[in-house]
Amino acid sequence: MNLERLRTVRWGVPAFVLAVAAFIRLWGLGHPRALVFDETFYVKDGWSLWNLGYSATWPGDADAQFAAGSVDGYFASGSYVVHPPLAKWLIGLGMAIGGPEDPSSWRLATAIVGILAVMLLFLIAQHLFHSTLLGGIAGLLFAVDGNAIVMSRVALLDNFLMFFALLGVGAVLLDRRWTQRRLEDWVLRRRRDGGSLDWGPVLWWRPWLLAAGVAFGLASAVKWSGFYFLAVFAVYTLVSDALARRRLGILFWGTGTVARQGPASFVLTVPVALAAHLATWAGWFTSDGGYGRHWADSAANAWSGAFAWVPAPLQSWIHYQAGVYAYHVGESRDHPYASPAWQWLLMLRPTSMYYSDDPDGCTVEYCGQSITGIANPLIWWAATAAVLYLIYRLVRYREWRVGFILVGLVAGYLPWLLYPDRTIYHFYTIAFEPTMILALTAAIALILRIGEEPVADPVPRRLLVGGFLVIVIAVSVFFWPLWTGIQVPYEYIRAHWWLPGWR
């Protein structure tokens, strides 16, 4: 491949993926002009947060008023909210930029984050597989998948959680390479100077690890489940460090990692993550109207004894978080679209976000408008099969790329299996969907033999992957009306109910 063609591929592939992602997420973003699903909470919270510094209460008919353009009906009293504020700050920012009366402004930040996430996944896949082609395939699959599209076109929190968690994953990937190079340099110097390789160094300057701590802290400032990513990938970095030290011949590779590098890595990640999380509550701390803001001002509530030194605002905040935790672990109310985590990989009960049977413009007996978080079935089920195959490959071949991909699934998915009775939904899967796309991309890399010994006739393999991508795009076109709320005949909507739980 000549230099000019190589340059075209390197820039053309990501440019094409970016254009596809942007068009899909921005076209018709203001439809419907209604608060969709949990937008009823987060759009209004975001706007009052932007104006007051905290989420305020609203009157009972606020949804209709807000949709009609009357957006300043909030009260001064703080509202009890059960998720941290970062995503709502960003939703409010979009509304401040485009005007809160415009529904596309409600969803602007979510859409932009969705576009950026596609490009971020492209970069991670390109770095992970050393292939622009595979990066483009990963980005394209994410760009055209229904779950990712819907979550980028409604103002919910989970797309922001996914984005910041993915930022952290990318930073961990870069830290892995950074750290291994520093360890190799250290070993070479020690061998040259005749020094001991007993314990290995303590690496304090790890900028990408710091960045990962910040990113995971911001993920937790969207939803508490972001802390799962912090915990799981913190363990992963220790395991990766230990294995790198063993490969380089460091004698006490395990003990040295846990006892010496472990505390340093903890300092580089956990405090900055907590600081990033806490910083997003600045509006609540600096204003007076936030829910529970002055709980500790009462002598009956204020802590005493060993904890008397904790400032009253921080006491109030901790008390507030304790109440939120109790809410989350006890939330078990029935919901028609609730889906326990064991169903997610099979996509048995996707979430219906919006439905209307407004007949305007309908040319048949009955039409409807639907927004349902059904992933592209071909992508989703192929990715699920790829995850199962990668588990086998990890056990059989101990491949680090496979392990890295599956760690993301462990962080985003496995913790939810611990809460079988909690009311949860399929759209939570957006937090770890990039991991599933990476798993599918890894399987495609094996089919194409990228990074492997080439086969004598690669054409059938290329045709197989190319045909798969063409069918994926065709399926996305078929489901497009159900992801964007386009009015279509009811029979067309029913044609998408491939499983009983999809209706």
Strand content: under 5%
Strand order of the largest sheet: 1-2-3
The level of helicity is 55-70%
The description of the largest β-sheet is: 3 strands, antiparallel
- Overall, the morphology is globular
Concise overview:
The protein has helices at residues 3-26, 39-52, 62-67, 86-98, 103-106, 108-129, 132-144, 146-153, 158-193, 207-220, 226-247, 253-279, 282-286, 312-330, 377-397, 400-412, 433-448, 459-484, 490-494, and strands spanning 352-356, 367-372, 488-489. It is mainly α.
Task: Give an account of the 3D structure.
With 503 residues, the protein is mainly alpha-helical. Among the domains are: 165-280, no CATH class; 343-503, no CATH class. It is 61% helix and 3% strand. It is built from 19 helices and 3 strands. The chain has helices spanning 3-26, 39-52, 62-67, 86-98, 103-106, 108-129, 132-144, 146-153, 158-193, 207-220, 226-247, 253-279, 282-286, 312-330, 377-397, 400-412, 433-448, 459-484, 490-494, and strands at 352-356, 367-372, 488-489. It has a 3-stranded antiparallel sheet with strand order 1-2-3. Helix 1 (3-26) runs parallel beside helix 7 (132-144) and helix 10 (207-220) packs across helix 12. The longest helix is centred in the middle third of the chain and has 36 residues, at 158-193. The radius of gyration is 25 Å and the shape is globular. 42% of the residues are buried. The mean pLDDT is 93.
